Amino acid sequence: MLKLINIVQNNNFMEADYIPENSTTKGHVTLNVITKESHADLVENYGSMYGRMAINGLRNTLDELNKGKISEISKERVMWY
């Protein structure tokens, strides 16, 4: 499980904090909604898999917004793998 929290979209960027399962430490991810470039600050001892999952969570949220599946961004999203 991975939690995305504090999800926000400001101008051309969507960003969130993420918390891997069994961790109390947060990482941060940013997605440029125009260019689709992304960046993840990794959580120590958890590797890059969780950062990639968090970026995919932002991409899915953006896709749902663009397709009208959701009308606003939830502040939190839980993802299972």
Characteristics:
5-stranded antiparallel beta sheet; 81 residues; 1 helix; 22% helix; alpha+beta; 38% strand
Structural notes for this entry:
- This protein has 1 helix and 5 strands; from the N terminus they run ββββαβ.
- The protein is α+β, with helices and mostly antiparallel strands.
- The longest helix has 18 residues, at 49-66.
- The relative contact order is 0.27.
Low-confidence stretches: none
Give, in order, the helices and strands.
Answer: EEEEHE
Biggest sheet: strands side by side, in what order?
4-3-2-1-5
Shape: globular
Helical residues, percent: 10-25%
Alpha carbon gap, first and last residue: 6 Å
Mean pLDDT: 92
> Measured on Cα atoms, how large is the radius of gyration?
12 Å
Q: Structural class given helices, strands, pairing?
A: alpha+beta
Biggest sheet, open or closed, and with what strands and sense?
A: 5 strands, antiparallel
Q: How many DSSP H or I helices?
A: 1
Beta-strand percentage range: 35-45%
- Beta strand count: 5
